[in-house]
């Protein structure tokens, strides 16, 4: 029972870490830090943090590196770290933490659409679960468009007594925090596309290469080089790379430790145990946490467009997940359920991070019309 709850607890911890990252990163961006420079520092610090763990726990157990695995790692670093984070932080700069977290709930719908060509997902439009997934995807996209194009009137929910004066000063001095701009939501949506691509590639790679610490260290190391090159094309001055500002240093260290090192390790492990859609279903928790913190600390304003759009995205998200759950309840006879990836054999790694994969044999049924993806 405890082992079954571990992936859920781990993903809850990831969302708490992401919530703090969004708040600190928004303050650093409002203080004038370039988002590409922030991502570059994040990857460098994350590599330094996670590499010793990889050496300590997986030096002898890491699977053999093949040419295919190496290219998959390059793609993982490009989509899961570089493109995903660069696009996300640019979107955060031109938006608010609550809006960016709300738009992140597009991830399961985008993952579903992108997984279909790789035969990791099926539509099954003639069955109710398939219809739920399609309808949920449409509702998610509709909610995202509503948030992007419609602001609406202000919803008065009172003023927090915990408001952080430093955050107010940063917001007043910022010239790029326009939450009504279309640019911010657009970049966040594109970051979800990159993130979904990483989920799919990571799922494929986990069939042959299960080493969460080593995978994360290599990904962050490759992404460090990619992000530094991108940042250098945008910022040439030494001052732009300075970390003398306390909020810049805190934001970079925190996002590296909790947003990259810890998050990639935990999500890679959870993907190997439960599949990519399971990881996606925890995103609404981040929205709730950041919405409360944004109102309490950053004095964020809530508008009708953002509230209704967020609600539609969350409703669509759980429609997709409900459909996926119903599909997983009916499995062809003789097959096994150990995660959402069909016939994925997960090797047990170090005792501190890997758990034995449990397999459930499904007895023959009269109408085996479900699919394991």
Automatic annotation (TrEMBL):
Main location as per UniProt: membrane
Classification via InterPro entries: EamA_dom, EmrE-like, WAT1-related
Domain of life: Eukaryota
Transmembrane spans: 35-57, 69-90, 102-120, 132-150, 182-201, 213-232, 247-270, 277-297, 303-321
Protein keywords: Membrane, Transmembrane, Transmembrane helix
Cellular location(s): Membrane
Membrane topology: Multi-pass membrane protein
EamA domain span: 11-148, 183-321
Signal peptide segment: none
Pfam families: EamA (PF00892)
GO molecular function: transmembrane transporter activity
One Gene Ontology cellular component: membrane
Similarity section: Belongs to the drug/metabolite transporter (DMT) superfamily. Plant drug/metabolite exporter (P-DME) (TC 2.A.7.4) family.
PANTHER family found in the cross-reference section: WAT1-RELATED PROTEIN
Protein name: WAT1-related protein
């Amino acid at each position: 029972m405890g082992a079954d709850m571990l992936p859920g607890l781990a993903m809850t911890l990831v969302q708490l870490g992401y919530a703090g990252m969004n708040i600190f990163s928004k303050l650093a961006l409002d203080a004038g830090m370039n988002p590409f420079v922030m991502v570059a520092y994040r990857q460098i610090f994350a590599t330094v943090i996670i590499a010793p763990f990889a050496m300590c726990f997986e030096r002898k157990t890491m699977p053999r590196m093949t040419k295919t695995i190496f290219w998959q790692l390059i793609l993982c670093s490009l989509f899961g770290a570089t493109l995903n984070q660069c696009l996300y932080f640019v979107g955060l700069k031109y938006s608010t933490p609550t809006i960016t977290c709300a738009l992140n709930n597009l991830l399961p719908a985008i993952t579903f659409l992108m997984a279909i060509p790789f035969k990791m997902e099926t539509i099954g439009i003639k069955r109710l679960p398939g219809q739920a997934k399609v309808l949920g995807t449409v509702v998610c996209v509709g909610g995202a468009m509503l948030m992007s194009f419609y602001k609406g009137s202000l919803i008065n929910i009172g003023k927090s007594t915990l408001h952080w004066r430093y955050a107010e000063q940063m917001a007043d001095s910022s010239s790029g925090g326009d939450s009504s701009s279309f640019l911010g939501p657009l970049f966040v949506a594109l970051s979800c596309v990159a993130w979904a691509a990483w989920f799919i590639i990571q799922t494929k790679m986990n069939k042959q290469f299960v080493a969460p610490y080593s995978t994360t260290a290599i990904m962050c190391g490759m992404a460090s080089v990619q992000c530094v090159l991108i940042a250098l094309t945008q910022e040439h001055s030494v001052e732009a790379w300075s970390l003398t500002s306390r909020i810049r240093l805190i934001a970079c260290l925190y996002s590296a430790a909790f947003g990259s090192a810890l998050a990639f390790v935990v999500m890679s492990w959870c993907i190997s145990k439960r599949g990519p859609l399971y990881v996606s279903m925890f995103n609404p928790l981040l929205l709730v946490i950041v919405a409360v913190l944004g109102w309490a600390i950053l004095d964020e304003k809530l508008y009708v467009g953002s509230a209704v759009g967020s609600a539609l995205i969350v409703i669509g998200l759980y429609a997709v997940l409900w459909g996926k759950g119903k599909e997983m309840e009916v499995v062809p006879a003789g097959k096994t359920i150990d995660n959402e990836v069909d016939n994925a054999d997960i090797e047990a790694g170090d005792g501190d991070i890997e758990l034995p994969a449990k397999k459930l044999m499904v007895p023959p049924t009269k109408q085996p019309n479900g699919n394991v993806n």
